[in-house]
Write a structure and sequence with these properties.
The protein is built from 6 helices and 3 strands. With 147 residues, it is α+β, with helices and mostly antiparallel strands. Helix 4 runs antiparallel to helix 6.
């Protein structure tokens, strides 16, 4: 065996343990990137605020003012939400206008139920439009019920 061939095998033997370690490091880096993408929180404001009347017909007029922010966990959700913003706003205007129990809206439980229904309706629109996106939550950054 020549000296060059011996050196080649010696270098190859030294590199053999490094190759799997490099592959494992690359795989770990890819997993870390995927985990970071999953932990992204993107807040999408729905401007302007919603103002509508709530309560039963014939009762004293009661108004609801709500500033809404949508929470998403992927960067790709924002373009889908922005593309369908008029339809999403329509769904929330209809939802807020359907509320007949103004006293319940003033409670934490009532607001939580309203947020969950808003989330469900927004996700339904995104699914109907075949965006492949979903939101993770609806936040009320301002919520006022005025009687």
């Amino acid at each position: 065996m020549t000296l060059q061939l011996k050196r080649f095998f010696l270098i190859l033997l030294c590199l053999l343990p490094v190759i799997p370690a490099a592959a494992a490091a690359q795989e770990e880096e890819e997993e870390t990137e995927a985990a970071q993408e999953a932990t992204i929180t993107d807040y999408i404001e729905m401007d302007p605020s919603f103002v509508t009347h709530v309560g039963k017909p014939g009762d004293k007029l009661t108004y609801l003012k709500a500033s809404v922010t949508i929470r998403a966990s992927k960067e790709s959700t924002r373009p889908a939400v922005e593309a369908h913003m008029p339809r999403l706003r329509h769904e929330l205007v209809m939802l807020f206008g359907e509320q007949t129990d103004a006293d319940r809206l003033a409670t934490g439980d009532g607001q939580a139920a309203l947020r969950e229904e808003a989330k469900r309706r927004i996700n339904a629109v995104l699914a109907e439009q075949q965006t492949g996106e979903t939101i993770t939550g609806v936040l009320f950054t301002e919520f006022v019920v005025q009687k």
